[in-house]
Batch of 2 targets.
Target 1
Amino acid sequence: MDKNILDFETVSLNDEKSALVIIDQTLLPNEIKILELKTQDEIREAIYLLKVRGAPAIGVAAAIGIYLAAKENKSASFDEFYRGFKEAKNYLASSRPTAVNLFWALNRMEKIVLASKNKQIDEIKDALRREALKIRQEDISVCRKIGEFGADLLKNSCAVLTHCNAGQLATVKYGTALAPIYIGKERGYKIKVFADETRPLLQGARLTAFELSANGIDATLICDNTASQVMKNKWIDFVFVGCDRVAANGDICNKIGTSGLAVLCRYYNIPFYVCAPSSTIDMSIKTGADIPIEQRPPSEVTDLHFKNPIAPRNIKVYNPAFDVTDNSLVSALITEFGIIRTPYKENLAKLNLLNF
Ligand code: MRU
């Protein structure tokens, strides 16, 4: 039997080859191509170009990437080693600004270096390898827990609308927003999913529709501007989305188009759930207004995915990759620790998350 997309690892380490191994997500669903990335340039570019994407997967890729940089570091003294580490860290951190998992993972790796000052350089490299693999492994258990908590909110025979791709392709396994659907399926629930295509990079069409179908889920693809109509038709019971950063007050930042969905949910009285691993919660950011929003090239809107350009040359384009949804529109945050509801500021503070 042919392997399906869920049988491939989204992001892993091949230590013998000193390579970060990813699926090139820009080619999906037409081609499944596995990339072995060895240099820092290749790894940074893969994150920037969304060959590996989705907040948790970016974090894991960065952790493995910085381990590979450290492995190649030939310094004999700690100070020299640390200087090289910082350089590589800053380089990888410059790949994308919004998903906090990138910085969370890199900071976690830096903590390992700083705690190892008195160790041999080889021992530090070994500790970094273990930490990168731990971050990767934790992502699986965290997503599984989010899936279990999220599935408790679902019911048999229901319909979920989702935006972008917050599935297995955005994580190591299960996903965040799609995890409740996969766990719901394990529980025997019949769940229909409506996937927004997610302009302009089409993560919903290319990735969510692809992985849901591969997993035997009843999936329907809609254009982003169809969401209101399917809600009006009373076809949607829940909206589940992932996120790239949660501020300390519960404002959430996710793929552009998410905040519009949240507004629609309020109008149509549909629960709007945000699946957020703790690696996505940034307690150092007070409100969503302080979250850096990535701006992407105009060509993604005008040219990419089309045979011919679809807009006049030189038209002004506004192409933010993410938007912020006010916490007042969020029905609940689903974390690995459980379901968090308003008041978000107080309830998020109770998690005592470390500030990386
Ligand atoms: O630009 P992308 O594809 O990296 O954006 C991804 C998203 O916005 C996801 O919804 C988010 O990272 C959550 S992934 C579990």
Target 2
Amino acid sequence: MNIVVGISGGIAAYKSPHLVRLLRDAGHSVQCVATTHALEFVTRTTLETVSGRRLYCDLFDPANDHSTEHISLKDWCDAVIVAPATANIIGKMANGIADDALSTLLLAVGGKPIFVCPAMNSEMWRNTAVQRNIETLRRQGVVMIGPDDGHLACGTNGVGRMSQPEAIVAAFNAATAEAKFLAGKWVLVTAGPTYERIDPVRFIGNYSSGKMGVALAEALAEAGATVELVAGPMQARCHAERVNVHNVESAQEMYDAATQLFPQCDAAILAAAVADYRPDHCADTKIKRQDKDEMTLRLVRNPDILATLGSHKRDDQTLIGFALETNDEERHAKDKLERKNLDYIVLNSLRDKGAGFGVDTNKVTILRRDGEIHSLPLMDKHEVARQIVAYCFPTLQP
Ligand code: CTP
């Protein structure tokens, strides 16, 4: 792999040449990018010697190939490891600040896996602003390696020590071993039913188990994506790493969460079985049986989440919907795909045995916007999910 090792200005920078050496021994090509403060702790000569490449440090160095070296480097590299990462570079990364070669490259490098190895004093590490920045980066799919607990350069003991280069390489290898073709991507998934309240003890719901949506969230996370899972009330639980679960109850709550999250996402897969209508109001107290044989509930329309996302979708976003049909399946699904401005629609036919609500298997046909139709056999929902992810994200694969 082509790896950029970013070095910021902390005492742990003395370990960076060793990290570069280990990565090169493992067969990787390494380009060092350092801040000017890093060069107070480790020399340009050392970094250039161990990497075998000219150091990139100054955006405007006349020795650069051209003034957009950060752009050519972001195209060249397959991954970035920032080691050591000071509180300062972490703060810049989390807030989109680009005022030197390293921070500018990190801002440009979106879409490639980024590993951050923090190194700082314990008090700095615990600081609320630093923890907020770490959380922001984690949510963007940045992988944190360390910091470790141990002896610190300031003479104290505590959390904040940069992980040993051997441990950094091991964590990096483990994270990149599989085909993580969605690393750095952010995907919204909706799953499960919605409950539309009638009164404090009753609701209108449906039989959706949420299993398909959870399987999709897990398949996406397996492929390296960070997932925002907006889940209706359901039994299925998702324990995968990099899946942030947002529990909602009604279609309106699901709409609010999904429309808020979508602008930051690269893609969305809406697998929830959303109630199209809800009672026009929820009674404050339990509705008592009345002395008549009939009662009427007045329903009003819920917002269509998929259609709303379709109408706001940017060119760089992929939108995938589901369609559950009982007749004229492909025609109805194709119509939905066009009406809601989708890139793909996953069709479930209730006529297929073993497909649909409650069961562990599913049989789907995926329709692509350009008319291609991809039919899958009856499979376990997890395998169906993996196949949907592989078919719908070809452009994101290397
Ligand atoms: N969907 C949604 N919001 C709604 C209704 C549906 O996001 N209020 C999404 C579902 O998650 C699914 C897709 O739309 O991805 C298709 O849902 P479906 O109920 O089959 O489509 P409708 O447009 O409601 O069409 P119809 O009920 O007429 O078949």
